[in-house]
Structure formats: C-alpha cells, structure tokens
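#struct-pred

JT: dropping the chains for the assembly here, can someone run the whole complex?
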Amino acid sequence: MTVPIDAYLVVGAGLFGIGVIGVLVSRNLIILLMSVELMLNAANLALIAFSRALNLMDGHAFVFLVLTIAAAEASVGLAMVITLYRNHDTVNIDRFSILKW
Amino acid sequence: MFEIVVITVIKVSVVMMAILTGCAYSTWLERKVLARMQNRVGPTYAGPFGLLQPVADGLKIIFKEDLVPKNAEKVMFALAPIVTFVPAILTFAVIPFGADRILFGHHVKMVISDLNIGVLWIFAVTSLGIYGIILAGWSSGSKYSLMGGLRASAQMISYEVSYGLSIIGVIILANTLSLTEIISKQSSDSIWFFENWYIWKQPLGFFLYLTCAIAETNRAPFDMAEAESELVAGYHTEYSSMRFSMFFIAEYANMLAVSSVGAVLFFGGWNGPVLPSILWFLIKVFLFMFFYIWLRATFPRFRYDQLMSFGWKVLFPLALLNTMVTAGFKMIK
Amino acid sequence: MTEYIYLIPILPLIGFLINGLALNRLPKSVVSAVACGSIGLSFVLSVILFFELKALEPSSRVIEQVLFPWISVGSFHVNFAFLLDPLSAIMILVVTGVGFLIHVYSVGYMSHDPGYSRYFAYLNLFTFSMLTLVLADNFLLMFVGWEGVGLCSYLLIGFWFEKKSASDAGKKAFIVNRIGDFGFLIGMFIVFWSVGSLNFNQVSSIAPTVFAFGGTLITAACLLLFVGAIGKSAQIPLYVWLPDAMEGPTPVSALIHAATMVTAGVYMIARTNVLFMLAPDALMVVAVIGAATALFAATIGLVQNDIKRVLAYSTVSQLGYMFLACGVASFSAGIFHLMTHAFFKALLFLGAGSVIHAMSNEQDMRKMGGLKKHLPITFMTFLIATLAISGIPGLSGFFSKDEILWKSFSSQSGHPIFWVIGFITAGLTAFYMFRLVYMTFYGQERMDEKTKSQLHESPKSMTIPLMVLALLAVVGGWVGMPHILGATNYFEDWLSPVFSHGEAVNTHALLSSTADSSMEWLLMFASVALVLVAIYLAYNFYLKKTSLSTAMKEKLSGVHKTLLNKYYVDEFYGAVIVRPIIYFSLFLWKIVDVLIIDGLINGSATVYNDISEFLRQGQSGRVRSYATIFTLGVVVLLAFFMTD
Amino acid sequence: MTLDLVIFIISALTAIFGALMMIFQRNPVASVMYMILSLVSQAVLYMQLGALFIGAVLIIVYAGAILVLFLFVIMMLNLRQTEDMDSDSTPISKLAKFLVSGLLFLEMLFVVRGSYFQSSVETGLLSPQIDDFGSVESVAELLFTTYLYPFELTSILLLTAIVGAVVIARKPSNEDPVEILPFDSDDDEFKSAKAAE
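RK: done, full complex below.
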C-alpha cells in the first residue's frame, strides 16, 4: 500500500492555512515574510503532488519558477525590513501605519 | 531486502569509523606537517611519532567541564554543534570510495548510497552545515561569537555561489549528477591512466573549486569566522568539552568531505592502476589534505572586505566564464 | 536597375530624415547638399529607369515592385508596392526633374531664412510623398502619398507660420483638401467593394467585367474619385485654397501649386482611366467642370494685382484645361499638358520669385515696372514661359494646348462648346499673362527709391534653374507634335499602352467625329490669331495707353469689382458653410460641453469625493487588518466558486 | 503499514509541527530553525513523490540561501525577543483571524476531498509511471523548451529583485559627488572643439 495523493494535498492545505495564520497574526515582519514563504511552499507541495498524479512534469517546472520568485521576494522583502528597521528601529509591523490617510 | 539492510549497515559503520579515525589523524597530520614546515618537530611524546596524540587529546577534551554561558540561548547552544556535525558526516553517504567488488559472495558497491543526484545531495547537505556555525555564534550571547557567526553566514552565502558554479563545468562534461558515473567517465585503460581526469579539461574549474572549498570549510586563509587574533575563537569561543570537540571534528570531517569530492570530480575518484582502488582514493584525499595544511602554513589571513570582494569580483565572474566556455565547447562538439 | 525603383522615393525620405532630425544643427551647405543631392540622385535614377523602360517592348512596359505585404486581412490584401509604367515614368521624371531645379533654386531663394533646414526637410518630405503617390501600385498607397502631399502642402503654405495669413492659408488648404479626400476615400471603398482589389492593374482588368457600362455604381465611384481630384487640383468648387496658398515661399508655389501636387488629380484620373471610360456621364462632368474652371479662373486672373495670384489663377485655369482633356477621353493630351505646364508654370513662378526677391518681397504689380533692364535673365526666361503658356507656335504650350483644343472639338465625347470655351480661355490667358509681363517688366518704374536702389539680378543658383526650365519650356512640347504637322506624336505613342485598356472598353469615345485635317488647321490658326490679338490688346491697355485700362475699369466697374473679389466665392462659402458651423460649434461648446458634459464630470467627481471621505474611515493603516479582510475575500470567493 | 506510509506520516507531521512552531515563536531565530525543520520534512515529501531534483533544489535554495539570508538579517539587526505576538489586538479580532484562516483551510480541504480532483493515483518513491519522472533532464527539458519564455522572464525578475534589494537597502549617503556644471560649459567645449578643427 502506498500513500494516496490526497494526503499530500491535505498536508499542503494545512501548511497553507498555517501560513495564512502566520501572516494574519504575527507582528514580526520577518516571521510574516517567512509565513509567505511557507504559503509558497505549500503551493509547491500541491504542484508536485498534482504533477505526480497526472504524470506530467509541468508541475516541477512551475515549482522551479515559484522557487525563483520566492527568492526574489525574500531578497526584496528583507531589504525593506532592513530599511524599515533603520528608520523606525523596530520590525513590528503594527508600527508601520503610514499607509493610513 | 534483509541482505541490503545488513550490507548498508556494515558500510555505514565502516565509513563512520573511517571518518572519525580520519578526522583524528588529520589533526595529528596537521600538527606534524605544520611543525615541520615551521621547523619544529610537533607531537612526539604520545606513542611513536606522537601517533597516539589524537587519542590523548580526545580523552582530555571529554573529561573537561561542559560550560554554558549564562546569557546563552540554551537550546540553540546545545543544538549548534550537532547541526554542524551531522551534515559534515552526511556528505559521505554519496561519495564512492572504491570500485565495486565481490565480498563474501555479495556484489558490493563501494558507496553507501549511489544517488543519481549525488552532487546535489552534497550541496544540500553542505548548505545545511552553515546553520551550526550561525547558531553557535548567535546563541552564545557573546560579541565575538556573534561576529564570527555573522561573518561565517555572509562568507558562506557568498562563496556557495561560486562553489556551485565551479563544478558545473564538470557536470556539463560528464552529463550526469551521479558521482559514480562521473568517476566511471574518468577511467582509462591506457598507460596514461590520468588522461581522462577532468582536471585537464577544467583547470579553471578546479582552481575555483579548491578556493571556494577552503572558504566553505572556513579554513586558512579564509578562517575569518574563528580568526583568533580578532575574535578570540570566533563562533566557538564559548564552547568547551564535548561540544567543542564536535565543532573540531566537524571541521576536519568537512575538510575530508571537500577533499573527497574534489578527488572524485577532478582526479578520477578511485581510478588508478596497480594499487587497489580504495588506496588510490585515500592517496588522492591525502594529497588534498596535505595541500590544505600547506596553505595554512603559507598564507596569512585575508581581511574581511578582501575576502568578500575576492569572492564576488574575482571568483564569481571566473566561475561564470568557466561555465559559459565549457557549455560553448560542449555545444560546438 | 529596375529593382531600384524603391530608391526613387526613399532617397528624398532619407534627405528629409537627415535634415528634419538634425534640425538647425547642420551647416546650411550640408543641408542644401543633402536636400538637393537626394532628389538629384532620384532624378538620375528616374532617367535611367525611363530609358530602361523604353528599351522594353511597348506591351511589357509595366514593372511592379512589391516591397512587402502591407495589409492582409481576410480577402483584403494590399502590398507596399511600386508600379513603373509609361505614365508613372513621365510623372517621376517631371517630379524629380522640376523638383530638383526648384530645390537648387531654393538654395538661393531661402538662403537668409532662419527655417532653412526645416524648409528643405519639408520639401524633401513633399517629394517623397509625391513620388509615393505617382509610383503607388494601388489606391491605398496612392492615398498615403495623397495625404502626404496634402500634409506637406499645409506645412509649406504655413511655413512662415508667425504670419497669421500664412497659417490661415495653410489651414484653409488642409480643410478644403479634406473634403476632396473624403470623396476619394468613398470612391475607393466603392471600387474595392465591387472589384475586390485596390491594385491598379487588377482593377483595370477586372472593372470592365464587374461594372455595367455607364451604370450608376461606376458613375458614382468615378464622381467620388473626381471629388478627390477636384480638391487636390483646385477645380470648381474647391479651388479656393490655391490662390491663398501663395502665402508660402515662392519656390513652394512653383513646386507644389503649379508643377506637381495639384496635378495629382489629373494623374489619378489618368491612372484610373478604365473606370472613367466605363462611366461616360462622369467623363462629361469632368469635362464640364474642367472647362468651367478654365474660363472662370482665367477671368479672375484678368484683374488681379498680386503677381503670384495671377499665376495662381492661371494655374487653376490650366488645370481646368487638363481636366477638360481628360473629360474628352484624351488622357494623353491631359498628361502632355501636365508636363509642359509643369515646365513653364514652374518657370513662371520661379521668375516671379526672382522678381519678388529683387523687389524686397513686394508682390504688388502696381509697384513694379521697368524691371527688364534690371533683371535681364529673369526677364528673358519669364518671357519665354509667357509665350509658351500663351500658345505661341513652336513653344511647348502651343502643342499641348492645341492638342487639347482639337480633341475637345473633334472627339466623340467632346463638343464644339468645349472648344469655344477653351478658345476663349486661351485668349484670356494670353491677355492676362502679357498684362503681367507689361506691368512688371516694361513701362515706368513705379517702385520706391529704396527698393529701386537695391534691385539686383538673382544669384546663379536661382538663374541657372530658370534657364534650364526655359529650355524645357521651349523644347518640352516637341515630343508631342500633332500629326498634321507631319511629325510623329511620340508622347501619345509612349502613353498608349497605359490607356489602351480604357480605349478597349469605350471604343468610340476617342473616335474623331470630324477627322478633317483642314478643320484642324483652321482651328489652330484661329487660336493663334486670337492669342496674337490678345497680346496686342494687352500691349495697348497696359503699355501704350494705360489710360485705356483705367477707362475700362471705370466703365465696367461692376464686372471689375466682381472679378477682383473673385466672384465673391469665398464670401459665399463663409456665409453658407463656415458661419453655420461656427454657430453650431458655439452651441456645442457653451451648452453641450460646458453645461452638460462638464457638469456630469464635476458632479461625479464631487460624488466620489464624498464617498471616499466616508470610506476613508475604514482604513486603519494596519497591514494585518488589511490582510485579514483580503483573506476573508478569498474565503468568500472560494465559497462562491465551490457552491457554483 | 508500509515504510512509505511511515515516512509520509512522520515527515508530514514534522512539516506541520515545524510550521506551527515557526509562526508561534517569539524568538525569530527559533522561528527560522523551525522553518528549516518544516522545509526539510517537505523536501522528504517531495522526494517521496518522486521529485528528487526539486527536493534537493528546495533544500539548497531555501535552507542554503533564503533562510540563511533571514538569519543573517536577524543577526545583523540583533533581534532577540520581539514584542508579544499580537498583544494589542482584542481577543475578538484575534479570534476572527484564526476563524478566517480556519475557514480557508476547511474550504481547501473541501476542494481536495470534493469532486474537483478525483484521485485514484497512489504514490511511492519507487513507482513513477514515466521513466525519468523528477529527473534533472526532464525538468530541464521542460524549462528550456515549453517554459523557456517564463524561465527567461524569471531571470529578469531575479535581476530586478537584486537591483531593487540593493537600492532599497543601501544607506543613503549625504555626500554624493554630483558635480553641477554651469549650463554653457559644454557649449563652450563644443565651440573650442570646433575652433580646434
């Protein structure tokens, strides 16, 4: 007996949900960024699972592209964290409310 | 099934033993060679030629008191040596150290796991090894350690890029990621047994690999992370006893690992005439180790900014160039 | 060499790009070298191509060069292609040849103008457009050139745009031309709709099979195309822009408003002769309009005092001649007159330009006189051109005009009335042209002292083109001598392959009803006699007894005033067309735009402002609460899709 | 209970556990460590699905580069204990956030279990259906043929990200050596050059 594909998808969904909670709840900008990465990874897991289920390699290619985007996102995000920290001396996201009015 | 498990367990134990012994005697080798190069004699008292010195060192270090600084992050502090140690050992899982042979009626491959993405495995595991150093530096709660950890992380991120690119040339030539296949492609039946070694086709790649590997293992002249003249002992300043020895062993294990990989990728692995294949492998690894020690005895330490600019402005473009030229030749062929 | 057809239009385009992009950054010598050089090369190429074409069999003298497919949508295919046949060969020779001379002339004429390189850039662009127009192998590409010359005409008329009259004249030309273009476009649509192609050769071969001879559709198409020609070639009722176009620099008037652009209408009708031959009614309209314009403009020309305006009305009148020729199905006569007219009218304008140049930009003939001895070369060349346009035997104008007159009398689709009108016009032409000559070059010097002291013959760069053109004005007509003089009409033979299609569909149109050579002799002598009489009258009125002309003016003051005010046509247009449009526009502006549209926009802006003011309260500025709401949105959307 | 299932259950639980610990840690370094734990477990899941290459790349890229970068930033800014997680939100808003996330998770479960994707495919490391499933060659072939265009675009994206990151994170220096030349200076140059001619 082997593991049905649905199980992987459920794990992916769970990771995604945790990522969403992380984005909504955490106040640390860095953890928030990591939660976003986690969501991307959850999507990757689902892509790989589908790829296996459909016996198509395309999912792998997509995961590859998603990894690239994750790297780009992390680098830009962290650069912004550094700048924000430099200007506000904190990475608490609730302190950054200059979007208001 | 059972047979495979038994063979694997035996192989793993043998390799583990070999690595630990190798690490221990690497320290002896280093001390001896350094001493000779500096016109000293090195350890002589414990056993003939001081051969029992590693044993004595090990015993001494185990019986020392295990200190944990007051403001350290306890869990991380404990975790760091393990995180450093385990990946160093894991690298050897995919390194073939000899030709296949029949032992006790079984066809045995002289590699623990012949993964067809062996090169990637080495990379993945090596990249995990950084965390040990970073964690150690951060969790110690000491300025020197933190500086060491910071330096190590920046250095490793920087050099890992060139490190990876330096062996792309070999991968392009060999057309595979499996280390066994890379070795078999370098074999030759003629009297010029070294004619197919990739070092001839990839001299620049070899140079880059050598340089980056030293940086990756934090060895002199790139040992910024533990520079004793600036940071006391860098990331493991606060460590003592068994935990310290784990860092110590991990460093030598890492050296052995990169030496083995270098031997596999550029010097035909265990290929060689007359002598048994395992011996050939050991000879090549020994030469690498000797070279490392030699370098340590020869070069002064780089300055941090020199290290960074060398990595990004010299090695990285060269590695790109090497990759492009190799790919170009491959395409023309 | 024939693969280099595309270079002919491209060279001036390159010149335009160089001069236009490097605006005022190049020294004047480079600018003029580029401008004249590009068109000069074009001319050389044209000559070479002409002789290559001549070396071919008459029946195979059609070279099509497809540069690239331009538009290809469904069944609609248009290529960016050039067509070289006897007709377009003549045209490119005229355009590049006369154009080149005028470029050279401009070097001297415009030498002190601050917009020097802009001027030459426009001139080159114009040449490019005109060459595209004449070389186009389909209606659409021709239309591109058509619009291009319109644009350049606008730019060049308004070249001195700081002068209000100049910019107004430019706008007038542009707008009036638009009306004509509209007709041209619709005519083009009808052709495409019925024939399924815009390619000239295909249209020519297919049209006779799809159109009923003399049917409504073909007549409508031809009339609409003719509307375009009317606009471009300044015929009644759309001629009003051409006299105003004299606001542009004089070489421009010579090039655009005499030699090339205005003849585009004639060229277009000749090019589509098959269609017109299929529609005799349309041909008749062309002839009537042409004849009427010829007479009408000539009468106005009698009394104008501005030297360039006289020439402008003369141009309108001569263009009327060309349409008359086309209207009586004698296309080759029309093209022949187009060519000779290009020579002598360009010469006249350039001569006038030389005079204006000498007179320090004075254009009123009443302030001239006696310039003969001050401007000897200008006078000589001008006189030759005047003799040519008047139809003195031996000069080019005589042959072409005579052919038109004879064809309009003898052709099956002609009528003696056309001949009468043309005959009278010829007399009027001779009269007003010699009036011009006498008022300008003879008699007492009426200019003020300052101008008089500065009188000088123009520089070489201006006089040499004059002399070359004078030579052409003399010999240009010798290629098309009438049969009765015992010569061969090379011109007609040369063009006959182009018009053979048209003649095939309407065989009796060209048949002479009175193929009587004695009649032809008679008519020829009559017109020559009339011209001589007219010259004598002009001599009497304006040189010998100037009191006579004033007496005439007094006596016929009503007529004179009408003529002087150009029959009040501009005023009529102003009252009937322009003013209602202005009032309607005012209504649209004050009522529709300001009250209704602006009110709607401002009102909606206010509403949004209020709504935003309200919604703004919901923005806490906290990223996480935004993210929560965002996620809620995702949840709701997902739920929506799942229940679907 | 086969080995596959055991590996799956262990790594799946570890992945979830690591993710949960990651978001609920106050200490960012610990967060990163848990993230790595989760990642490695996920890599195991990938490899179980036959995606050996992607699994290795995941570890190399994420563990080897991205998370080291996170750690580097954390250490550079020397962030130890950050403020309490979500301390100043009301319990209700906190609850709402969990509720929303939970709803999203439930919906995803519903999608997985519902009729949207009916799966009867069974997995396991050793039973791929196409020969070189998950191999470097097959991934590379897709990336360099079918997905060449997106692949090249991602390289541009990466370049943009690098430039952006450098620009954003660079310290603004007050002493930019911008020389302001008088306006006519190059005109003069032009003139002198012309004179030289």
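JT: nice. The mean pLDDT of chain A is 83. The two ends of chain A are 59 Å apart (CA to CA).
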